[in-house]
Each structure stands twice: as structure tokens, then as C-alpha cells.
Amino acid sequence: MRRLFPVTDQTPARSQDGADREWSLDELADAYAYPALAADGHWLRANMVSTLDGAAQHDGRSQPISGETDMRIFGTLRALADVVVVGAETVRQEGYRPARAREAFAARRAAAGQGPAPAIAVITASMDLDFSLPLFTSPLVPTLVVTGAAAPAGRVAEAEAAGAEVVVAGDGVSVDAARAVRELAGRGLRRQLTEGGPRLLGQFVAADVLDELCLTISPTLTAGGAQRIAGGPSVTVPHRLAPACVLEEAGFLFTSYRRI
After folding, report:
1. Which keywords accompany this UniProt record (predicted)?
2. Are 147 and 175 spatial neighbours (Cβ–Cβ below 8 Å)?
3. pLDDT value of position 2
4. How much is the pLDDT for 19?
5. Are 91 and 122 in contact (CB under 8 A)?
6. Whole-angstrom Cα Rg for the chain
7. Which residues contact 118 (CB under 8 A, 6 or more apart)?
């Protein structure tokens, strides 16, 4: 069963033509299209997956709680973005590789004035990254390393020697989440997507710069002590989002909530 429930119309529809079939990439891209942005605007969305009991990972990785359609949406969200923002710990744990150009989205990206693939921006204070990985040495679009002004100079030099662009978004060692969003937008990377991990998402939530959450609810239970989708200190007042749409397939719920 595949259903789309737009929040403005509670009548469910399996697909645009009413057929019970796999949603096309174009249909998914339309459902998850970024809103129109002002000339100086930017939009930060997060894409995360959670089990029914709130776990964002199993055995330290998100893949075991994901599924085929979740990965199609994952790829679609990447294909719509100017930049994919990710924490260093997630790069290490998930084995991140450069984003690739996808023919299915080439015309859509060209019409939006985008390059062939999104850049990857890695948020790191320690610069504890393996700069010999393909993410840094052979991306289609140069990888950005976002760090603080007091980051280890030797590691900064290694990143630049590997071909990465170092972006300073903090006066000390740590990265200021709001400044990171602004620095990336200032480079023309205005359609932003963060894939976590939970610590990084928590920083964006705390800084009140998250505009949209795309959350896959996996029909699984794991128990244990796995992280939630967002970590770190709690906010003073909970942030309220408005539902945009819900896609359902094989028990998975693919939800989108936007800033009010």
C-alpha cells in the first residue's frame, strides 16, 4: 500500500494516477520540493529515520532500521539539495562517499541553476577525519569542511591539500550552527539538507535554524539505549512544526513537517 496524505486534502491517493505502484522519482521530487526562496533566503531540512520506540540507530548505524523506499527518498532529497550537511561522527560511522550525479534529476537540477550533484559539508571541531577517503580526494563537487577558527592548523592544511574547502563558522574550536548555515548560504548553497547525526541535528534545533524535518518512521522496535534523532541540551520552549505530507508504504511512514 502506498498512499500520500497531503495536509490540505485528507483524501488518500496511492499515486498521481491512482495506481497502486511504486512512486516515480519525479513524483517524489514534487512531493519534497523545496519552497521558493527569496534572493537572500535559505532553507535547512533534516532527513532522519526513527523506530517506533524512538531509536535513530541500531548497532550504531541507521541502515538496519531503513528500507528500500526510505533509501529512494534519501536519494531524492539529496538530488534536490545544493549541499548535504553531516557531522564528522556520522561520516566515520556510515562510511560517507561523495554525492553522485543522477541522470534522473539532471534536468530538474539544471532548471534550478544547480550543479550536477550536491556538495557534502562535514561539520567538525576536532578535524578528526581521514582525508585520504574518496569523499575528500575524488568528489564530483569539492567537499567542504566546516570548523572553528581555532581548529588544528595542521589538520586544516591536510584538508586543503586533499582538495577540500575549509569553511570557518565559529570563533573558537567549536562550530556555531547558525553561522554554519549562513556561511554555506553565502556560498550559494541555499537549499540545505542535513542527514545528522543526532548530535548535529540537536545543535541545529537548539539554534532554531531548522526549517523542515523529513522523518521516516520505521515499523520496528529495538529497545536498548540507542540515540534519538536529536541529541544535546533541550530547548527552553519546544519548537512547533506543521505537517506538510505523509507517504506510507509497507508500514513505513515518510513524514514531512515544516516551520510554522
Report:
1. NADP, Oxidoreductase
2. yes
3. 44
4. 54
5. yes
6. 18
7. 78, 79, 81, 82, 83, 84, 99, 141, 193
Report residues of the chain scoring pLDDT below 70: 1-21
CB 180 within 8 A of CB 146: yes
Q: Which amino acid is at 10?
A: Q
**Contacts of 177 by beta carbon, 8 Å cutoff, 6+ apart:** 200, 203, 204, 206, 207, 209
Distance from C-alpha of 96 to C-alpha of 46, rounded to nearest angstrom: 17
Sign of CA dihedral 107, 113, 116, 117: negative
- pLDDT at residue 4, as a whole number: 55
Which tens digits make up the pLDDT trace of 119-172?
999 999 999 999 999 999 999 999 999 999 999 999 999 999 999 999 999 999
Position 5 scores a pLDDT of: 53
Query: How far, in Å, CA of 243 to CA of 140, rounded?
Result: 34
140-to-53, 70, 97, 117, 137 alpha-carbon distances in Å: 38, 24, 11, 7, 10
Retrieve residue 168's grid coordinates. Answer: 570557518
Q: Is the CB of residue 114 less than 8 Å from the CB of residue 137?
A: no
